[in-house]
Structure formats: C-alpha cells, structure tokens
Design a protein that fits this description.
By secondary structure, the chain is an all-alpha fold. It has one domain (4-203). It has nine helices and no strands. It has helices at residues 4-16, 18-28, 34-65, 70-89, 101-109, 114-123, 126-138, 142-164, 166-203. Helix 3 (34-65) crosses helix 6 (114-123) and helix 3 (34-65) packs across helix 7. The radius of gyration is 17 Å and the shape is globular. The mean pLDDT is 85.
Length: 208
C-alpha cells in the first residue's frame, strides 16, 4: 500500500513545481525585506496547503454532487495534466501560465501578493488541484489517504523552502538549470498523466 506515497510525491511535486514557484516568488518580491518575504512565503504556503487539502477531502464529494463519475474525472484530469506536461517539455511553462493578462496586471499593483498570485494559482493551481483529487481517488484506505496528505505536506514544505531560498536557488540553477528541471518534470508528469487516462478509460469499461 505504501507505493502510493512515492506516486503522490512525484505527481504533486511536478504539478506544483517548487522551482517555478521560487522563480516567480523571486520576481514578485524583488526589493522586499527579508522579514516581509518570509511572511509572504509562510502565508502563501499555508494558504496553498489548505486549499489543496480542501480539494483532497472535498473534491470527490463535489464530483458526486454534480453527477460526475471518478473515471470521467480521471480521464479529463489526465488530459489536463498532459497539457501541463507538454508546456514543461517545450520549456514554455511559467508559473503565470494559469493567470490571465488582467490578473497578471492586477498582481503587479497588489500590495499583498501572498494569496494571489503566490498561493493561488502559482502553488495551488488547476494542475495541482486536479492531481490531489485524482490521487485521493486512488486511495482506498485511511492509511492511503494519510500517505497522500503526507506527500502533500512534503511538497508544500519543499515549496516553502524554495521560496525562502529562491535567490540562492536561482543563482545555482540559472535559466538553463530551471529549464532542465522543467523538462525532466514534464516527462514524469506526462507518464503519470497517461496512467490516469488509462485508469479512467479502464474504469469506465470502454475497453471491456
């Protein structure tokens, strides 16, 4: 049963993208004091974690309310994650990819950026929200659910540290290094996305 932990960890890591979040955190907090940046990182990580936790335990119930089966969501979610993977592989992915132009302009003049855009949608975006619901759908026991939540906690923790150490991280990786991380993440996410699609199609009995 413990195989779900590495799967959840890998899926959430590439869906959230701590390196991409760190690069945008560095850009959005340029000129901020160390204390202010720490407060923003804490608030952003906490908010994103709570949002994803809410999706983890309420996502499947929401699907049932709108009469959408888990196989259909697995297939649709797999397609969405596959699109995110394609952006990563083509090195076109940025942490602002899920933000509209109007929202991006609003973020530039907003004084408190912890909630938007750092927490949502940079950390808790469509890809990570979809991923956590799909992972909880694969959890068949309380222990499995606990392992998925533990993986989420690890990824949020890594993302928080990435924001705090964003200046050092970007100096070490540079643009090329960040693109390498993005492409490797894209390959992993593409494979995981296809597995979700196959699981959804199999559960829907299309191939039976």
């Amino acid at each position: 049963m413990f195989h779900i932990f590495p799967t959840a960890l890998a899926t959430l890591f590439v869906a959230v993208g701590p390196v991409e979040v760190a690069s945008m955190f560095l850009a959005l907090t340029a000129g901020f004091s160390v204390v202010h940046r720490r407060k923003l990182a804490i608030m952003a990580a906490t908010t994103a974690g709570l949002v994803l936790l809410a999706f983890a335990f309420g996502g499947i119930k929401l699907l049932s309310l709108i009469d959408v089966g888990l196989p259909a969501f697995r297939t649709a979610g797999g397609v969405l994650l596959l699109m995110v993977a394609a952006e990563l592989l083509l090195a076109k992915h940025t942490a602002l990819s899920s933000i509209t132009t109007v929202e991006e302009n609003e973020a530039k003049v907003q004084t408190d950026i912890a909630i938007f855009p750092l927490a949502i949608p940079l950390t808790a975006g469509p890809g990570s929200m979809t991923a956590i619901v799909l992972l909880m759908g694969k959890a068949h026991t309380v222990i499995d659910e606990g392992l998925v939540v533990a993986a989420l906690a690890v990824v949020i923790g890594v993302t928080f540290l990435s924001m705090l150490l964003s200046d050092r991280l970007m100096k070490i990786l540079g643009i090329t290094g960040a693109n390498v991380v993005a492409r490797v993440s894209g390959i992993l996410l593409a494979a995981l996305a296809m597995q979700f699609i196959f699981d959804g199609l199999t559960a829907s009995k299309i191939f039976s």
